[in-house]
Each structure stands twice: as C-alpha cells, then as structure tokens.
Amino acid sequence: MPARLAALRAAALLTAVFAAGCGGGKPAAVPAGGKVTLRKTAVPAGALVVFHPADPAVERRLGGKPFGTVGDDGAFTLTTYADGDGAPPGEYGVTVDWQKKAKAGGMALSGEGGGGASLLNPRYGNPRQPFATVTVTADGPNEFTFDVD
Amino acid sequence: MTRAVKARGFTRIEPAPRDRGRPARSSPGCGRPARGPRVAFTLIELLVVIAIIAVLVGLLLPAVQKVREAASRMSCSNNLHQLGLAALNYESAYATLPPSLVVNIGLPPGGSGQPGFPYPAVVHSWAPNFLPYIEQDPLAQQYNMRSPWFSSPAIVPGTPDNQAALRTPVKTFICPSAPGGVDRRVSGTFTFGAPFPYQNLAVTDYATNSSINPGSITFFGYPAGTTQFQLFSAMRPQLEGAGLPLLGVGVSKPNAVTAVLDGTSNTILLSECAGRPTLYVGGRADASQPLNDGGWGHHENDYGLDGAVSKTDRRSPGNCVINCHNDNETYSFHPGGAMHVFTDGSVRFVRETITPQSYAALITAAGGSMTPAEVNPNAD
Predict the structure, then answer these.
(1) Which residue range is the domain that position A70 belongs to?
(2) How far does A49 lie from chain B, in Å, by closest CA?
(3) Tell me, what CATH number does A119's domain have?
(4) CA closest to A118 among chain B residues
(5) Which of A86, B130, B283, B292 could lock onto B188 through a cystine, CB 3.0 to 4.6 A?
(6) What are residue A72's phi and psi, to 5 degrees?
(7) Percentage of residues in chain B having pLDDT higher than 70
(8) SS3 per-residue string spanning B288-346
(9) What phi, psi does B163 have (nearest 5°)?
C-alpha cells in the first residue's frame, strides 16, 4: 500500500532526525595525557595543564576545554567531561601554570581560592600565545611531554 | 428480569431494559437464585477507571509542578531585580556599588581601639548594605556595622548582638524554588584567630561571585600572573586596615559604576547559590556534609569562580560552571540554568551550556580583551 509506505518512510525519517539530534552534541573525548618536567629534572607537582582549543568555535561546541593536574610523578591525565576522560580530537594550544600553595593559617577569610604568584616563566601560561601547539588524534597515542622553567 | 450476557469470556449480570419492578425470575441457563435488579461495576471496570484516573493524574502532576516552578522562578527573578535596583540606589547615595565583602582589620588585630574591638576585625557580607534599600530599615538599625557579623553578647558580653539580626529571615534574599524556603537555618564556627560560634542564621540563595580564583585563571583563558584584582566583578571586596598583610591581601575599594568597563549589561552583579546550608551536587542533596555558610550575614557569600569537573564530581577547576554544586559556585533549582541580575539591573537566565570562558567574561568587570570571550561575552 503506497500510503502505508509513505507513513513508514516518514517515521523512519523522523527517527533518523531525532537520532542525529541526540548524537550531534559534544564530540567524544579520547584518552590523552602526558608528562611535565621542570628544567628536565624536577616535577612541578600540582601544576595546572590546560589545552585551549585553537578555534574558539570548538570551545563552544565542547562547552569548555580539556585540563589536567600534574601529579607527584609528573604525569597528568586530561579531563573534559568527566574525571580523566581525555580530550576530544583536535588542535590545542597548551598552557602550564604552577602556583605557590596558599599558606594555611588561623587568619584566613575563606577556605577557597588561595593560590598566589606563578612560579613558572609567564610564557608557559599565556592562552593567547601558547608555548606549544599539539593535536589530539582519534587513534592516539595522545601522550605529550612538556618541559617548563 | 436479569439476563446473563456472555461477552469476551466473562459473564456479567445486567438488568434487562424495561423490566424493572417486575418480580425477578431465574434466568434460563443461569444457576443463580433470582435476586432484585442490581447495578454494579465489575472488578475489571473499576480497575480500568482507576487506571485511567492514574494516567490523567500522571499527566497533570508534572504540569502543576511546572506551573509552580514557573511561579517560584518569577518570584526568584523579581527578588534579584529588587536587589539589582537596591545596588543602584546605593550607588546613587555613595557613588560606588555596594562591596561584595567588607573587611577592616587593624594591627594588632583586635587591639584596643582597632576596628571591631574586642573582635579581631570588622567583617560583613554583601547583604547588610542592601537592607535600607529593600525596605528592611528596622533590621538595618538592629545590625551594627562597627562590629563584625558574628558579634554577639554570648561571645563577648556587652558587644552588639548582630547574630540576633542575622537570625531574621529576609524574603528578598530567598529564592522560592529552593527547597526549605525561609525556614532554613545555618550554624557553625568561624575561626578567625579565635573560634566564633554562630547559631541559627537565616540564609540567602543569592551570592556575589566576585572574581576568578587564582588557581583557575589559565583554565578560564587568562594569562598566568593575572591577579584577582584585575578580574574583580562589579561588586568587589572593600578591604582596608593595617592588618591586611596578615590575610595576604591588599587594599581594595568598591567599584564606581564607571569602573565597570566591560559594560553594566555584560557584568553580573549577583548570582544564585541556592539551597544552602544543604549541600547539593548536580540536583542531589548530600546530607552527609552540610555547609556552614549560606547565612545572609556570613562573609563567605563572596567567593570566586572555579567550576567543577562534572555534575557528580565537584573537584575544581572544571567545565561545569552552573548548577553543579552549591559550595561556593553558581547553583539554582531552575532546570537548565540560573538567574543572574546584571549591573544594569536586568535579570537574565544564563544557561548551563555556557562555556566557562564566557561565564568568566560575564563575571569580570574590566576583563578588557584578555580572552576571546571578553571581547564577545554573549557569543554563547
């Protein structure tokens, strides 16, 4: 029956549109991480590594950007949507910022914030002129090594 | 007369039409004794009716809740609008916007003749300065600005009872969408050189997100080394006194409205941080760790932006800047975003899909062109 066939086609089309609507959201993250060393020898434990998307439109599509914190062994794992999920494939400018831990004392107004002067050369922490540009690929291995001073 | 009707596998007794009043006779083929004409529903019929009612209620209930949320949301945005106008009226009187936090600390802190004596400092939240402009004059009279918010004769006999004023709920500070309404109370201890306990303070669902926290500045796209002073919002702290170095901060004065260089319609004045003192993470209440701030007089109503990893993981920084948790981040009970009053007095709903960089740009008062989002904060 042609009428029923048309209805079926319409239903299939609608399903396809909805499926596309749901799947067309944020690009999936692939595992990514790496290592940061301080003058090749030390480890800037606690430094914040941020991957800034080269294209601001990509940042809007992701709803943010990948970032990670350097551990005691110098390794970091990127996080975008959930802890340690990596980064969506694409081109990124990298910044590393390492701050002095705020001193914890009896005279403090708030437990939040803290931080202080950057301990690294400011050229590592400028998102508009990143010191390194990297590409995260879908097949990996997305392991990036940076040395800062 | 009654007759048995066999339909779809079950037997039903029903009166025959125009037979009422006649003596009943046994129906042929039915073994039951004769009885009077009877109108009754079978179990199936009842179940069907109940099921239909259940479906209708099920359809109606979300609609009712939606209407209630819409009404609460309207009232919530109206409160923010009142607070926005109050801030601008304050600006007309004092030539600056109200401070997001007041600290005046002498050297030595709490020394005789120093600010706040016998307390270590004068500390206030953003809220007391708003009271005279939201028709809360009596409460403003009761609150002593020369003593810190935690001042109470129960701590130092003879000192002003600011805690008593802070126990009074103020409707304009409450968002009706937040569970608990005006009945929420918060108690705790603020340690500031010495422990200062406070009890049963009334809460606020609005707060000042007055800057970007230093640990997150590169995450939000600002160059490393940018100070919090460059990233302050329209309402910023008023910090003064010789003891400030003890807190590790410098002098800060509240902004004149002309200092809001990003434009008053592009700069947030107050945000929602609703539901306190219960900790909410991504819509779920976490009863195991109640918050000790949220009182409208508590200075921790002023905080900086960090974001959170996700709606289930509240570590910072992160890409989730709205509706992730209410521990010093923007949080509301409106689906999809949160209400904000901007420095021009307009109330806008900012969606939780906003990028962290754009949200940061809306917070800063003079971000200039430090990030692409500062250049065009309304791109999202």
Answers:
(1) 26-148
(2) 8
(3) 2.60.40.1120
(4) B225
(5) B292
(6) -65, -25
(7) 90
(8) CCCCCCCECCCHHHEEEECCECCCCCCCCCCCECECCECCCCEECCCCCEEEEEECCCC
(9) -65, -30
Say how far residue A105 (Cα) sits from the centre of its chain. Answer: 33
- At residue B245, the pLDDT reads 87
Torsion of CA B366, B371, B376, B379, to 10 degrees: -130
DSSP β-bridge partners for residue A37: A147
Q: Which two tokens stand for residue B9?
A: 């596998």
Chain B within 8 Å of A104 (Cβ-Cβ)?
no
Find tokens 């900086």 and name the residue. Answer: B304
Any CB–CB contact under 8 A between A108 and chain B? yes
CA B189 to chain centre: 22
Question: Which residues on adjacent β-strands are paired with residue A144?
Answer: A34
Q: Is the pTM of this model over 0.90?
A: no
* CB of B223 less than 8 A from some CB of A: yes
CB A77 within 8 A of CB A84: yes
Look at chain A and report how many structural domains it folds into: 1
End-to-end CA distance of chain A: 75
Alpha helix segments (H runs only) across chain A = 2-23, 56-62
| Range B98-125 burial, b when 16+ CB lie within 10 A, else e | bbbbbbbbbeebbeeebbbbebbbbbbb
pLDDT in tens, B43-94: 999 999 999 999 999 999 999 989 999 999 999 999 999 999 999 999 999 9
